[in-house]
């Protein structure tokens, strides 16, 4: 719930500071679906290759226990306010992640690369699953 309650104001300001090329929210099409839509609409012929999957802690185990019916590890699970997918210059991506953590106290991750391609997106065969811990506040819901 804490993740869903966050606003994108700081992230948007930092996108300008770090020269973002594009961005989308991750919602009903899952990470891969939104990455594919973003790749299709780029000025240059590029493809996105996703190496890391940030997933709320314990949800990978839940997905497995449910028979993978939501296709979470394939990047197709529908999300409710799943975060932002932002395209940044390679040399500025790490600084963006550090800056957002400094300002908000939440981590951001570099999840893949942009390469010359045919406006598609894909997840590598064995992506690294990043278990995102919940950020609970002593008894508060949000």
Would you write up a description of this structure?
The protein is an alpha+beta fold. It has five helices and five strands. Strands 4-2-5 form a three-stranded mixed beta sheet. A two-stranded antiparallel ribbon has the order 1-3. The termini are close together. The model has no long low-confidence stretch (mean pLDDT 89). One of its GO terms (biological process) is selenocysteine biosynthetic process. Keywords: ATP-binding, Kinase, Nucleotide-binding, Selenium, Transferase. One of its GO terms (molecular function) is ATP binding. InterPro entries: PurM-like_C_dom, PurM-like_C_sf, SPS/SelD. Pfam families: AIRS_C (PF02769).
Record keyword descriptors for this entry.
142 residues, alpha+beta, three-stranded mixed beta sheet, two-stranded antiparallel ribbon, 5 helices, 5 strands, globular
Largest sheet: 3 strands, mixed
Give the strand order of the largest sheet, numbering strands 1, 2, ... along the chain: 4-2-5
Fraction in helix? 25-40%
Number of strands: 5
Low-confidence stretches: none
Average pLDDT for all residues: 89
- The rough form would be described as globular
Count, helices = 5
Give the termini distance in whole angstroms. 7 Å
Structural class: alpha+beta
Question: From the alpha-carbon coordinates, what is the Rg to the nearest angstrom?
Answer: 15 Å
Element pattern in H and E: HHEHEHEHEE
- Strand fraction equals 25-35%
Domain PurM-like C-terminal: 4-123
Organism: Cherax quadricarinatus (Australian red claw crayfish)
InterPro entries: PurM-like_C_dom, PurM-like_C_sf, SPS/SelD
Protein name: PurM-like C-terminal domain-containing protein
